[in-house]
Amino acid sequence: MIRDKIATVSKIQDYLKAHINDPVSLYDLAQSCGLSPWHTSRVFKELTGKNPFEYIRAIRLSRAALKLRDENPKVIDVALDFVFDSHEGFTRAFF
After folding, report:
1. CA distance 49 to 1
2. Are 15 and 28 in contact (CB under 8 A)?
3. Span 12-71, pLDDT tens digits
């Protein structure tokens, strides 16, 4: 049972990493692991402590911060690359 949950979370994490720059829905995540949206979210939170959208937001912010630090791009470009609607929302997400 726990191995199945770990495998499910691993599939979700793989999907999220592959789609880090794309909009992602709970339905997409459920399709990636073959479960219902509700069960997908429940299993993910049970094992990671975060719901899938908290998890992907944290990854996006971490990668965006590294890109801002290392590449000196425009903030709006990074915000849009990591699926934020505006640079204001992106900036607020860091606080």
Report:
1. 18
2. yes
3. 999 999 999 999 999 999 999 999 999 999 999 999 999 999 999 999 999 999 999 999
Residues in the chain: 95
Q: How many domains does the chain have?
A: 1
Supply the range of the domain harboring residue 81. 2-93
How far apart CA 54 and CA 41 sit, in angstroms, is 11
- Residue-wise over 36-73: b if at least 16 C-beta within 10 A, else e? eeeebbebbeeeeeeebeebbbeebeebbeeebeeeee
Predicted TM-score (pTM) of the model is 0.85
- The rounded distance, in Å, linking the Cα atoms of 43 and 92 is 29
For residue 31, the domain's CATH number is 1.10.10.60
- 49: tokens are 């402590």
Contact 26, 34 (CB under 8 A): no
